Structure formats: structure tokens, C-alpha cells
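User: Predict the complex with adenosine-5'-triphosphate.
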Amino acid sequence: MAIRGTEIRIEGLSQRYPTRKVPTFNRVDLVSPPGEAMAIIGRSGCGKSTLLHILAGITKGTEGRVLLNGTVVNGPSPRWVMMFQAPHLYPWMTVTQNVGVGLTFARWGKKETEERVNDAIRLVELQDFAQANVQDLSGGQQQRVALARSLVMEPELLLLDEPFSALDAFTRAALQKDVRAISKRLGFNIVIVTHDIDEAVIVADRAVIMAGSPGDIVHEMDVDLPDPRDRTDPQVQQLRARLMATFQEAANYKKPEVALAGAGGR
Ligand SMILES: Nc1ncnc2c1ncn2[C@@H]1O[C@H](COP(=O)(O)OP(=O)(O)OP(=O)(O)O)[C@@H](O)[C@H]1O
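Assistant: Here is the predicted structure with adenosine-5'-triphosphate placed in the model:
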């Protein structure tokens, strides 16, 4: 598989849902270099999923823009693919059929489809289940099928919206490690939205903390740890503790103009 990463450039991005008085977030700027795995963490409701949906081209921002290697994101594309908490597979199809569904829609030839699908299935280590019906697989295996279905498109960017939160801790940990390893082997970018500090530390090169209402990026922290990462490693635990402290600090975040207005009123 030949996958390369992309430069993600978010410029002055705002989102205000028509039914809401306050914007979800206001004038967010962010750059992620090719091949980076970036985690977006923040409390519920600060706009993480909305930001991810705009990156995926599923939702449109009300202001600003997103560029991937200079291309403005205006809609979905096989270059940027999204994985959700539920795998959303076709239950009547085999693993191979599910993984190949995007290539079938794109009218790829039989031989190329077979090669790409087999590569993707090998990457997620489901060779022994290639002809199994997806209904006969565990939750973790089904999420691996969803991952292979994303990888088969050879995306530059994989967007993950709390993709492993429905899985048990052991399966979740294995998938987190594997997603990072595969992204580093193939070179694509990851943006993962999560509530889980451990997940950010295991998967990401950089964690971005969102907080406030409207939401804002209030901190960024490099997750500068060697691979493979193990949560029992003291270095991993130390960084986790630092990130947790920063995350808790961010909970008290107020936009500067709000804080000043409060001080002036005393
Ligand atoms: N389609 C919509 N219409 C109106 N408001 C919305 C819509 N989608 C999200 N919101 C609101 O925008 C805000 C941000 O939602 P979003 O789902 O992006 O947050 P989040 O940080 O991902 O939360 P969570 O961690 O709980 O998934 C919330 O207040 C939510 O209620």
C-alpha cells in the first residue's frame, strides 16, 4: 500500500448551529504536519466532534476553512476517511466484501480490488477471518474490519471519533497500539477525538486540548515518547500525569475578554 500524509491547515474556523445562541467554537487555527497523529481532547460538548466532522467534509463551518495539502475540504473524499464508535458494517457480507465495498463502488477492477483488500486485511491481522461473515466476529474484530475498510482507500488522513470507546479495555488497548503502528508504517495522518487521556498518550504525537464555550484550543502538548508505547512504562505514566493536570487546568478556562469583563465589574 502506498499511503502518504497530508498537511492539515485549519484557518479561522468557526461553527454556529442555527438553533444555538453561542457558537460551538470561534476562529480556531491549527496546523498539523504530514504524518502526524494528533489527538483532540476536551470535555463533552466543547465541539470536538463538530471540528472532526468539518475536517471530514460531513459538516460545513460557518466561517473559515480547512485545507488538506492545499485542497479546501468541501465534502467527503476517499483522501480523508472517518471511523466512528460503531463499525457500521454490512451484516450480510463477509469481511472481504465489507473491506472492498468502497473499491466496488468506485468500480475498481477485480484483481486490483483483491490485492488491496488482502493487503488491508493483513494490516489489521484478520487473514484467518477473511471469508467469515462479519456478524460472527467480536466487537473488536468488527472494528478492525472498519479500520481495514478505511485503509483500503489509501487515505492521507484517518479521522477517528472515539472509535474504541465501546470496546473492553484489553481490546481497546490493542487497537490503539495497532492504529498508531499502522499509521507510522504507512505514513498517513491521524486526528483522533477522545475523552480518554490514556488513548491520547498511546496514539498521538501531539495532544490538543479544547475547552470553553465557545470552544477554543487552550493547550497543545507534544507526546514525545518512543514506540512501541506501553501504558505501564514510567515515561508514559509521567506524560499521562502531565497531560491530565493540563486537562484539569483547562476545565477552568475562560476566554480572556470574559475574564476581563468579570474583573471590571467588581
Ligand atoms: N446538529 C446540531 N445542532 C445543534 N447543536 C449541535 C448539533 N451538533 C452538536 N451541537 C451542539 O454543539 C456543541 C458541541 O457538540 P459536539 O458533539 O461537537 O461536542 P463534543 O465535544 O464532541 O462532545 P462529546 O464529547 O459529548 O461528543 C454541543 O453543545 C452540542 O449540543
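The beta strands are 8-15, 25-32, 37-42, 63-68, 71-72, 80-83, 157-161, 189-194, 206-211, 216-222.
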